[in-house]
Amino acid sequence: QSSIHGLGVFLKEPVKAGTLLWRFDPRVDRVYAEEEIAALPPHMQEYLRIYSTWHEPTGLYVLCGDNGRYVNHSESPNS
After folding, report:
1. Which residues in the chain belong to E strands, given as ranges?
2. How far is CA 39 from CA 36, 43, 44, 46, 79, in A?
3. Integer Cα distance of 6 and 44 in angstroms
4. C-alpha span between 70 and 51 (Å, rounded)
5. What tens digit of pLDDT does each residue of 31-67 get?
6. How many CA atoms, within 13 angstroms, populate the side-chain half-sphere of residue 69?
7. DSSP structural state of residue 22
8. How many Cβ atoms from other residues are within 10 Å of residue 61's Cβ?
9. Number of alpha carbons in the 13 Å side-chain half-sphere of residue 60
10. Considering the chain, what percentage of its residues have pLDDT values greater than 90?
11. Which of 59, 64, 66, 71 sits 20 to 30 Å CA-CA off 9?
12. CB-side neighbour CA atoms (13 Å) of 41
């Protein structure tokens, strides 16, 4: 359980700085342009805005197809 969004991914032990925690996999992950999200029904827009990560360099939202979507939605993430 998470006090931020109800669900969260938590580590059982510390992870060394620089350790890869997630990698984009086009078989399960998806990217959306702002225009694509705006064209969807409101409930889907809300879902994508909560669970996607804005990727500034590409100007796209990235939706993890696995539990990565539950990682660090904090205003002060630690990873």
Report:
1. 30-32, 52-55, 60-63
2. 5, 11, 10, 12, 32
3. 18
4. 7
5. 999 999 999 999 999 999 988 988 999 999 999 998 7
6. 17
7. -
8. 19
9. 9
10. 46
11. 59
12. 2
Stated as kind and residue range, the H or E segment containing 23 is none
DSSP symbol at 6:
B
- With H, G, I as helix, E, B as strand and everything else as coil, classify residue 51: helix
Running DSSP on this structure, what letter comes out for residue 67?
Answer: G
> The pTM is what?
0.70
Ranges of H-type helices in the chain: 34-38, 42-51
Q: Is the pLDDT of residue 1 over 70?
A: no
> Can you read off the two tokens belonging to residue 42?
């409101």
In a 13 Å sphere around the CA of 72, the CA atoms on its Cβ side amount to 9
| pLDDT-above-70 percentage for the chain | 78
